[in-house]
Design brief:
Chains A, B: InterPro entries: G6P_Isomerase (IPR001672), Phosphoglucose_isomerase_CS (IPR018189), SIS_dom_sf (IPR046348), SIS_PGI_1 (IPR035476), SIS_PGI_2 (IPR035482). Two copies of one chain form a homodimer. Chain A contains 17 helices and ten strands. Chain A is an alpha/beta fold and 445 residues long. In chain A, the strands form two sheets. A five-stranded mixed beta sheet of chain A has the order 1-10-9-7-8, with helices on both faces. In chain A, strands 3-2-4-5-6 form a five-stranded parallel beta sheet, with helices on both faces. In chain A, strand 2, helix 5 and strand 3 form a beta-alpha-beta unit.
């Protein structure tokens, strides 16, 4: 169960940067429902990259993943070679719900020292390497694959092939033919699913199967979010949170804090940051006009960041919208014991950690409102696979709605191309010599 | 060795949101040197909280920490109970430079499930618990201490006392008399040192001693930053980076990205976020006038966030200043091997991971500039204790300079008090009944 608490948006509490939500919903009902209809209407077209809507309905893909997991009970260390959308979803969900004993590792950078440290710590006989790249051309991921591939063969000879699983496009790119030629296990990123929307396909589900996440429940939660995304504006939760973002960004709030009250959800903001920033930070709209959209998502964790960022959130400029995530029940709780000699802390004695966490979450939300800092909360009944699936699919829908409301393509990322080309030029890749010359002339080499 | 690369601030490259640094330095020389003189002039006054300037000169405190570490060679797991400034510094440095075999754990939240998981994984006979709270009143830290204290006594009886080290104020608060009464090892947070400036005192050095960080070199680096902070404006590196922040924030850039190109530095942005946000997000200036200062620091890691945030940084609104951290040399490098069947990647064959990391860092900085996104870099000769100490003390100075330039108190955090009082009220603490009634009337309970 997931619900919204919008009470701290009320302008009577938070002043001019607030939002009369009920009034806004009446005013924008038509626009929101038009956006909904446009998104649902386009989902059959692969070029629209709306495949993430349908993936949670595809239970065969999950069964396939689970069969592979069962057939590979020997795995003790599971290494994801992936960056950005190929790592962030599984990282967020595994931190929240993963259970041992398989250890999950993410190689999402090319700094040599941590890669060397990991290679030295792993036993190749007990290690499965999952290389994840839809295009097969991501430099960081492919460099890591070359190194891990060599490391496996040096240790296992021809047996290396049993220790690699490839997750890539069903047809395009260099990894698919390579997997076929070598006879490697291979999984599909559906063509109409972009990296930041890929947690429900094998990009996410394969690693998560190895750490015991209940994938059926996770996908059922995603389907529940799909259901809410079909409703009229009055019950369409993703349209509603998109509306909050849309209205407050139009008031000039360009900073967008995402703050779950949970250490288990510590990587969820990183996943959200990519989803939100890469989807909505766009120079031009669909009509080709320069628009420069996008608010900057900021990671925070409660209560931890009460001691790091909340000072700014309360006293700094009124340029922020804060999204909180709050749990209503603990999975397992722990009593705070009484200790003789520390009676100054008697207000804690006999209470529970979850009571303290909940009190801090409510206290801070209210203190932010008192400082006229608008904030709203996703309230989760508890942290389980169903509810987390619902929340993540909700946030994908929220992002899609915002793209639609702003008239931009939320599913491309043209802004990262130039950096890739400069990298190729600096690495001496064939065909990039003119660009390398150009860079040299500008002092970059 | 640390130097600045300011070339991507040049308005000829990045347009109106750039900065002619040489001209700005000429214009602001007097103001910067007045700020420098004010800071150095006030440092003897404990009420000014400038003790962090002098701590790196205090080699006796470090020797004390190292003696304790040597006397406790039995420790296999070192648990920090601390939140905000009591955890972030040691976390950042240990991730960058820590060496096993002692495992360092940070309990910086009160969510019950992760605390239970840690307690179940630890062997109390091999565990040292370091409770860190300057005031001794931080609810989260003290709740955790009550639970760990009980857990140790349940397992070890009176022997629990050998498994606790207390880091707190030398006189104030409840932890100092408690440590004395129970005969616990105790370390000092100097009265004139605030949490976010405390990494050089035992708050940081005690955990770091247990993971083998070269503390003498770390503090020598901090002293080097002090030296640069005494220079005239033309050589005063912290005054210079403060100037960049000051000028660009006055142009309306309210988002402040901090992006090291290093997984080892993955927690440095979190430490910087607290330092910057909590110091500079202030409602009123020293004259009591409402000012609402502060830019929002945003965490990013290169190359990882090229695949998450750089799309927004390049194509989104021109509201950002980006600080990069780049390394000139690897500590240890790894070759990217050639693999038959993957010749499409031949531009990577035989190159090294560090070459790729460096190319990506330079390519992205240049691509950001091409999108008129101002950025500058701290260039570190390599990642070692001396250079990291220099960088961190530099950033403390940068923060202090900005507070001075903006006329605010960078060393308090009045904005977090109301949330603490609401928490006490919701937890039923004696004396907070009226506030609890007030909250109830507003629907918070």
């Amino acid at each position: 169960m997931l619900r919204l608490d919008l009470s701290n948006l009320d302008p009577r509490r938070v002043g001019a940067q607030g939002l009369d939500f009920a009034e806004a919903l009446r005013e924008e009902k038509e626009r929101l429902e038009a956006a909904r209809d446009a998104l649902w209407g386009r989902r059959g077209d692969a070029a629209e990259f709306l495949g993430w809507i349908d993936v949670p309905e595809d239970t065969e893909a999950v069964r396939n993943v689970l069969r592979y997991r069962q057939a590979n009970a020997w795995v003790e260390d599971f290494v994801v070679l992936g960056i950005g959308g190929s790592a962030l979803g599984a990282q967020a969900v595994s931190a929240a719900l993963g259970k041992g004993p398989v250890r999950l590792h993410f190689v999402d950078n090319v700094e040599p020292e941590p890669i060397l440290e990991l290679l030295r710590a792993l036993d190749p006989r007990k290690t499965l390497v999952n290389v994840i790249s839809k295009s097969g051309s991501t430099a960081e991921t492919m460099a890591a694959f070359l190194a891990f591939r060599r490391w496996l063969e040096d240790a296992l000879g021809a047996g290396w092939k049993e220790h690699v699983a490839v997750t890539t496009d069903p047809a395009r790119g260099i990894l698919r033919p390579y997997a076929q030629a070598e006879g490697l296990a291979a999984f599909e990123v559906p063509p109409a699913v972009g990296g930041r929307f890929s947690v429900t396909c094998p990009v996410g589900t394969l690693p998560l199967a190895f750490v015991g996440v209940d994938l059926e429940a996770f996908l059922a939660g995603c389907r529940k979010a799909n259901e809410t995304a079909q409703a009229g504006a009055e019950a369409n939760l993703p349209a509603q949170t998109a509306l909050v973002h849309d209205r407050l960004s139009r008031k000039g709030l360009n900073v967008n804090v995402f703050m779950p009250y949970s250490t288990r959800l510590r990587y969820l903001p990183d996943w959200f940051v990519q989803l939100h920033d890469e989807s909505l930070g766009k120079a031009v709209n669909r009509a080709g006009e320069e628009v420069r959209t996008g608010t900057t998502a900021v990671r925070a964790i409660g209560t931890t960041d009460q001691h790091a960022q909340v000072q700014l959130f309360r006293e700094g400029p009124h340029d922020k919208l804060i999204t909180l995530v709050r749990l209503e029940e603990a999975t397992e709780d722990l009593e705070i014991p009484a200790v003789a000699g520390l009676e100054a802390l008697d207000y804690l004695f006999g209470r529970s950690f979850f009571e303290l966490l909940s009190a801090e979450a409510k206290a801070t939300a209210h203190a932010l409102a008192k400082a006229q800092q608008p904030n709203f909360a996703f309230v989760l009944e508890r942290l389980d696979a169903y509810t987390l699936g619902w929340l993540m699919q909700h946030l994908m829908w929220q992002t899609a709605f915002l793209g639609e409301l702003w008239g931009i393509d939320a599913f491309n990322q043209p802004g990262v191309e130039l950096g890739k080309e400069y990298t190729y030029a600096l690495m001496g890749r064939k065909g990039y010599e003119p660009l390398a010359e150009e860079l040299k002339a500008e002092g970059v080499e």
